[in-house]
Amino acid sequence: MKIAWWKWLTLALMLYVLVMGFLGPVPRLHILNETIRNLYFHVPMWFGMILLFATSVGYSIHYLATNRIESDIRASAFTQIGILFGFLGLTTGMLWARFTWGEYWSNDPKQNASAIALMIYLALILLRGSISGVRERARLSAVYSIFAFAVLIPLIFILPRFTDSLHPGNGGNPGFNPYDQSGKLRPVFYPAVFGWTLMGVWMADLLIRVRILKNIQTENEA
Amino acid sequence: MNILSQIFVLISKDFRIEFRQRVLLATLLLFVGSASFSLYQVFFAARARVNPLIWIGLFWVVLLFSSFQAVSRSFNKEMDRLFWYYFFRVKPEVLIISKLLYHFLVLNLTAWMAVFFLSVFFRNPIPGFGLFALTLELACLGLASGLTLVAAISARAGKNAGLLPVLGFPLIIPTLLLVIKLSVNALDQLGWELALPHIFSLVALDSVMIALSFILFPYLWRQ
User: Fold this and answer.
1) Taking phi first (over 0 means left), then psi (-120 to 50 degrees means alpha), and beta for anything else, what does residue B49 get?
2) Short-list B217, B146, B134, CA closest to B176
3) What proportions of chain A, in percent to the nearest 5, are helix, strand and coil?
4) Of A180, A201, A221, B23, whose Cβ has the fewest other Cβ atoms within 10 Å?
5) Is the entire prediction scored with pTM above 0.95?
6) Cβ of B198 under 8 Å from any chain A Cβ?
7) To the nearest whole angstrom, how far is the Cα of A42 from the nearest Cα of chain B?
8) Residue B158 scores a pLDDT above 80
9) What's the maximum distance between 2 C-alpha atoms anywhere in chain B?
10) Using the beta-carbon criterion (under 8 Å), do A130 and B163 form an inter-chain contact?
11) How far apart are CA A183 and CA A178, in angstroms?
C-alpha cells in the first residue's frame, strides 16, 4: 500500500490521540472530571472546521480569479468536510455541555455562532443544489461562500466577546490555561488538533480525487 | 455621465418603475399591515397589554420578514433581457451601489411603515427615540448591505423565490443581534456610552459587507 507520507503521519497521530486520549493521565478537575478528555475531540473539530472553511474560501477566490473548475471541486469538498467537522463539534460540545453546564443547549454565544455557521454552509449546499449549470453553480457559490465567510469571522471571533459565555476565555471566565497546570493535556491536545485537521484534509482529498476523475470521465463521454 | 449621476439615474429608474406598478408598495403594505393586524388580534383576544419589550420583539420580527419581501424582486429586471443592454452601458460597481442605496431606501420605508403600524395598534413605547431612530437606520443599512448581494445571487440562480430567505437569513443574524441589543438599550435609556461599541461594530460589519458586495458583484455580472 503506497500512500503519501502525511497520511502515515495522520494515522500515527490519530492512533496516539485515541490511545492517550482515552487512557492517558488527565488532571483531576471539579465538575469536569473525566469529561476533560473531550478537549481532544471537541476543540480540534472547531480548529479543523475553521481551517477547512478557510481553505474552501481560498479555493473559491482562486476559482473567481482563474475559472478553473478544479478549484470549484476543491472548494465544495472542503466545505462539505468542514460541515461534517462542524456537526461533530456541535454534537461533542452539546454532550460535554450536558455533563458540565447542565443542559445540551444554554444559548451560549459560541453555541449560537456555530449553529449559525452551519446554517450558512447548509445554505451554500442548497444554493449549489439549485443551480444546474456547472459554471454558473461554481461562480455563484464562490461569491456566496466568500461573502458568507466574511460575515462568519465577526460572528465567531468578535461578537461573543460582547456577551457572557460559559466557554473558557470569555465573559470573565479563565482561559484554557488553568485547567492544565500539571501540563498533562497539552502533549495530547496539540497533536490532536494537528491530527484531526490532517484527517479532514485527507477526507476532502479523497472527495476531490473522485470528483476530478468523474469530471474527466463526463468530459470524455461528451 | 459621471458616476454619481449614473447612480442617481439608476435609483430613480427603480423608483419610477415602482411608482408606475406599485407592486412593492402594495406588497409591503399588505405584509406589514396584515402582520401587525394579526398581532393586534392576538393581544386583543388575550386582553393583554403589550409591554415595551414585546413591542420591540414584534417590531424586529415584522421588519425581518418584510425585509426579504422588500429586496426579493429588485434584481429580477436586471436578470432579464434588459441585462444585455445594461451590460454595455453600466459598470457593475455602479449598479451594485445604486442597488445598495435603493434597498436602503426601500428598507427605510419598510421599517418606518412597521413603526407606524405597530404604533397605531399598540402605541409607541420607545422613550429614547433618537437612539432608536439611529438603530433603525443602522438596521436598514445592515440589512441592505447583507441582502443586496444575496438578492443578486438568488436572482441569478433562477426563479426560486424561497432561495433568498434561506441564503440571506444566516448572513443578517450578526446585524440582527447587534441592532436588537441597541434597541433594548434605547428602551432602557441606558444612554449613548453603552451603545457606542455596538454602533462601531455594526458600522464595521456593514463596511465589510458593502466592500465585499462591491468587489464580488462584478463576478456575478460577468457571463
Assistant:
1) beta
2) B146
3) 80, 0, 20
4) A221
5) no
6) yes
7) 23
8) no
9) 60
10) yes
11) 10
The residue to which cell 444546474 is assigned: A132
Q: Taking all residues of chain A, what is their mean pLDDT, rounded to a whole number?
A: 87
| CB atoms B174 and A155 under 8 Å | yes
Predicted confidence (pLDDT) at residue A176 exceeds the cutoff of 70: no
Residue B84: Cβ within 10 Å count: 9
What per-residue confidence (pLDDT) applies to B81?
66
* A214 contacts: CB under 8 Å, gap ≥ 6: none
pLDDT band at A125 (very low <50, low <70, confident <90, very high): very high
Determine the Cα–Cα distance for residues B181 and B172; give it in Å rounded to an integer.
14
B171-194 mean pLDDT? 85
Mutate to test the interface with A, among B79, B176, B177, B200 (most CBs of A within 10 A): B177
Using the Cβ of A155 and the Cβ atoms of chain B, whether some distance falls under 8 Å is answered with yes
In one-letter notation, the amino acid at residue A61 is: I
A148 touches B at CB < 8 Å: yes
Per-residue confidence band for A181, with pLDDT thresholds at 50, 70 and 90: low
Q: How much is the ipTM here?
A: 0.86
Distance from CA of A176 to the nearest CA of B (A): 26
Residue B55 burial (10 A CB sphere; 0-12, 13-18, 19+): buried
- A183 pLDDT band (50/70/90 cuts)? confident
CB nearest B153 (choices: A144, A151, A158)? A144
Residue A27 grid cell: 488532571
Dihedral of alpha carbons B126, B129, B135, B138, sign: positive
**Among A32-41, A168-177, B82-91, B213-222, whose mean pLDDT is lowest?**
A168-177
Task: Say whether A130 and B160 touch across the interface (CB within 8 A).
Answer: yes
Task: Give me the residue label for grid cell 449546499.
Answer: A125
Q: A34 or A94: which carries more pLDDT confidence?
A: A94
Instruction: Identify the CA nearest to A121 among candidates A207, A64, A50, A44.
Output: A50
Q: What are the residue ranges spanned by the domains of chain A?
A: 46-159+198-221
